[in-house]
Design goal:
412 residues, alpha/beta, five-stranded parallel beta sheet, four-stranded antiparallel beta sheet, 14 strands
Amino acid sequence: MRAWPSPEIPSLPVTGPQVVLHDTASGSRVTTDPGGTARLYVCGITPYDATHMGHAATYVAFDLLNRAWRSAGHDVTYVQNVTDVDDPLLERAAKVKVDWTALAERETELFRQDMTALRVLPPDHYVGAVESIPLAVELIEQLQAQGAVYQVETDLYFSVTADPDFGAASNLDRDAMLRIFPDRGGDPDRPGKRDPLDCVVWRGERPGEPSWPSPFGPGRPGWHVECAAIARHHLGGAFDVQGGGSDLVFPHHEMCAGHAQVVEPGTPFARVYSHGGMVGYDGEKMSKSRGNLVFVSALRNSDVDPMAIRLTLLRHHYRDDWEWTDTELWRSVDDLATWRKALSLGAGAPAAPVVEEVLAALADDLDAPRAVAAVDRWAAATLGSGGLADTSDPQAAAALLPALDAALGLTV
């Protein structure tokens, strides 16, 4: 599957600090230590509707990580999946009476356009679930060889007790998992399961659903095993960061880790698990089931500057839960105008400390609000309260513009 075009990233004359991230598994801050190439996996969309601000917040957040690693001097291998066959997609296609493959491709293409507009760096490997079915089948066979898979009717289940570290990735106890599991795709009460938390790795063929041949009979892989297989194939074991929204902590990322760690004992699936907060609207988490969505494409089609959308996202720390408002968006439109006015002067307040602060902030658990505040202060100092302030850096704009692009992904 193809990704979207990559924007050019300006090279900076300074090197950023090593990146520190909050790790969900340990509950503490961890200095990422990629050595050479940093390896990142971020779970992608299920393409049955347009990109909303919750999606955008996640992908902009991990775009900041990609950029911060590059600023620190690392090459990056970035992998993202597309769950282009799954129950929500099939249900939506049936409801609107369109072919599920056509719906998946249409919404994936819209996602590409949204990510291009928001200047999100594309993954090096953008992998669909359908095209990765052979990888998932191979991983299921490896799990079978370890005695970690059993059959219930025509389905295959992963036995969570096969991974002695099960629970470590999410940092949740069993009671918490049991509360969460039914609301996030789990089936704890299915007869025949050995443990309520066991998850499907192969879903046997159902009438009216797509299926593929396999050694286990016709069917399709479960969601968790797809991501685990894609990540292991393209990144290997113990890759640097597994990223996604906080709603993926359990069961998705925990199950992915369990699959990988059973077939490669002693090797963690990922070194760090990093999760973004949820974006709300009208007092509720933004979600397709609630219908309280603000779409990136709708704003773009209303002539809203995509950089104002991105700046609105950057004003919130990636791990925070927050609520989208039109007021914030229009503030971002005005703030961009202010920044552009200050940068158009060429000269301005000293830029070197601002560049240093931006890079330091992003290396500090992707603290984009702190980075944006530093630019706000620079613009205010450059313009002054009553017009144009005295300037002391004749090359301020020339120094600051590349840093805003390279580090924050903003073209102003």
